[in-house]
Amino acid sequence: MQSFMDWMKQSDIQASFITSKENVFYLSGFRSEPHERLLGILAFQDEEPILVCPAMEKEDARNAGWEYEIIGHSDTDRPWDMIEKSVNARIRKVHKWAIEKEHLNVERYEELKERYTGAAFVSAEEKLRVLRMIKDEKELEILRKAAEFADFAIQTGVEEIKEGKSELEIIAKVEYELKKKGISEMSFSTMVLTGANGASPHGNPGSTKIKKGDLVLFDLGVVYQGYCSDITRTVAYDHYNDKQEEIYQTVLKAQLAAVEAVKPGVKASQLDKTARKMIADAGYGDYFPHRLGHGLGVSVHEYPALTETNDLTMEEGMVFTIEPGIYVPNVAGVRIEDDLLITADGVESFTKFPKDLQIIK
Where is each Creatinase N-terminal domain found (predicted)? Predict the structure, then answer.
C-alpha cells in the first residue's frame, strides 16, 4: 500500500478508488466476491485508507488483517453518501482521482464525477500492474505451492483417462480430489479436451468421450491463498500417429527453447519470437494463434503479456507462463505450459509435471 500511496504523492493524486477484487486483495489482503455490491479501497497520500465492502463481510475483512476504517454498507444503504462523508473528513478537496478505468463501470464513475465536480480522473492500472509484476519472497512461496497443486491436478486427470470416459467426468474427478486437499477455487474453468476438440485453444469441455488414439489436453490452475497457478499438458491415450507426434514435438521444442531463453534483460518479444519462429519453420505458423504467455499472480492473466510486439525488458522476480500451442482443425491440438520465475541468472519452473509425450494405457 505504501508504494501506491507514494506514487499518488509523486503524481499529485489526492484520492484513489480501487475497485477490482484482485487489486483490493493485493492492497489489503482481503479477498472478496462482492457480486453486484460495491467493493473498493479509498487511498490517500498521507491519510489512512478506507475499505468499502458489504456490511456482512466486515468481520471477514478484519480477520484478513485490515486494521483501518471500514465502510460496511447494507443492501438498503447509500454507500456513495457514506464514501463522500469519509473522504471529506480526510481531505478538503480532491483535484485528481485515480481509478481503475478498465473496471469501474459508468454508473459508479458518474457517482464520483457528480460528487467531485471539476476533478480529473486518471488511470491507476498501470501503476498497479507494475507493483504486482515483481513478486516478493512471500508471494513466490505461495505461487510455488499453487503450482504443486496444479501438478497434482494434472496427475489426477491423467490417471482418470479411460476409454469411454467423458471430458466432464475427468474434470469432476480432478476438482473433487483438489477439494479434498482444501482447494476451493480454480483459477479458471478447468479444461479437458479430447481428440479434435483440442484444436480449439479455448474449447468447452463436454460429453465427448475419450477413444484410443486421442490426444487429451489438460489446462487448469488453482487459487491458493489468493494466488493462481496455470498449467497445460497434452498426453496420448493408447497410441498416437505420426502427425500427432510431429505436432507435439514441434510444440515441445518451441516451449523448451523459449524457456531456455529466459533470463533478466531479455525482451518479452524475443521470447515470443523464439517459440513462434520454430513453429513457423515447421510449417505450423498459421496454427499458433495466441501470445506465448502472460504474467501470473493474484490474477491468472496479468501483466506482462508475452507477445512479439511487447519489448518490455524482463526482470528478476517476474512470474509468468510460457505456453506455445498448435491447433489443427479436425486433427488435434497440443499446448504445453509452465509457470516460470526469472531468477538472478536464469529461470525456475514452478510446474514440474513431465513434458515428454506420454502414452496413457
Answer: 2-134
